[in-house]
């Protein structure tokens, strides 16, 4: 009589990716900025330890902003971060909506 196999522990994912619930707010903000004429292109990279949403003014340039998801930092600094063009951290945290607010401020302009 064969012995029953023990259930395997869940294997860690081989790549980090944005979930549909995370892409909704990101693409909503992206659409508003495209409509305002600020942004023109984006790229998504899914790597082993980080997922990156890069925002470009023009396709051939370096990204204006990078929205990163690093689950390994979830219990430390927060798994979401927004980086500027020079690599500076603009906002970091576990709440994606709060982290994206730093970019929404760019959409608000004073009307003369």
UniProtKB/TrEMBL annotation:
Pfam families linked: DUF2794 (PF10984)
Protein name: DUF2794 domain-containing protein
